[in-house]
Amino acid sequence: MAGCLAISFDIWGTLVDLNKTLDHLSEIASNRLGLSIDEARRAIYVSHEEARKLRRFTPNIPPLELISRGKEIIAAKLSTSLNTVDSILMEAFTTVEPGSIIYPDVIPALSKLHDEGIYMGVVGNVLFWPSAYTMIILNKTGLSKYFRVAIFSDIIGYSKPDREIFLEFAKTSGFEPNRVIHVGDNVIEDVGGALSSGFLGVLINRGSNRSIYVWELNAAVINDMRNLVDFYREASLKICRK
User: Fold this and answer.
1) C-alpha span between 94 and 90 (Å, rounded)
2) 6-16+102-239 has which fold?
3) By CB distance 3.0 to 4.6 Å, which of 63, 75, 131, 172 could disulfide with 153?
4) DSSP letter at 216?
5) Sheet with 180-184: strands ordered across
6) Domains of the chain: which residue ranges?
7) Is pLDDT at 148 greater than 70 in this prediction?
8) Mean pLDDT, residues 90-119 taken together
9) CA 181, CA 198: separation in Å to the nearest integer?
């Protein structure tokens, strides 16, 4: 199956369960600040949504500024200092149980693709923690061994769905854009950004009862990451023989 296509993956909500990670972050905040778990969870989730809105409605905001402003939001919601927020984030990311936050369909799919020699990498945005913390998670979970390249918005200065971050993956990997499949859980940031960059776009929607391939749009919806293996095979047959 190894051939002419590469695969880039979003991380949060695609490979790693964001909600379970935020729940662990809430537990750390609760213990450190003497808040009830409900108070801490509410503050964390509201902060996350406000930071997402900031990124969505301020598309040109530099990723490093987004991290700073995101931390200010969470500090305000938790009524604590920025230094304490940094400390809570570090504790949360270094103590989370790796097996509890990986979706169960991820490792079987990545293992199969990796064994077939498929070139894979990640393309990730930041919010109120830097990409270095995300790399801690990828290393702790063992997911990093499957990827040859990691492209992050706070490193290159562009966030998904900006074409620049996708094209940076293509440039770094050495694959033409029309020979890269991007997989993510967000229609706009992942699929929209991928398609506008000339990639194939795959939406992972685990709540769906079926997978759909729309070859006219170079797009697909899969409900299980293991279905990506079949999509890759079909895409290879359609594209690699051209």
Assistant:
1) 6
2) Rossmann fold (3.40.50)
3) 63
4) G
5) 149-152, 119-124, 6-9, 180-184, 200-204, 219-222, 212-214
6) 6-16+102-239, 18-98
7) yes
8) 96
9) 10
Digit-coded pLDDT (tens) for 193-240? 999 999 999 999 999 999 999 999 999 999 999 999 999 999 999 998
Q: Could you tell me the fold of the domain covering 18-98?
A: DNA polymerase; domain 1 (1.10.150)
pTM, two decimal places:
0.95
User: Using an 8 Å Cβ cutoff, are 196 and 146 in contact?
Assistant: no
Asked whether the domain spanning 18-98 has the same topology as the one spanning 6-16+102-239, the reply is: no
Name the DSSP letter for residue 6.
Answer: E
pLDDT at 2: 58
- 188: buried, middle or exposed (CB in 10 Å: 19+, 13-18, 0-12)? exposed
Q: Which among 87, 182, 93 is positioned nearest to 136, based on CA atoms? A: 93
Helix (H) or strand (E) holding 123: strand 119-124
Beta-carbon contacts of 88 under 8 Å, excluding residues fewer than 6 positions away, are 25, 28, 29, 32
pLDDT > 90 fraction of the chain, expressed in percent and rounded: 94
Rounded Cα gap, residues 190 and 182, in angstroms = 7
Confidence (pLDDT) at 162:
96
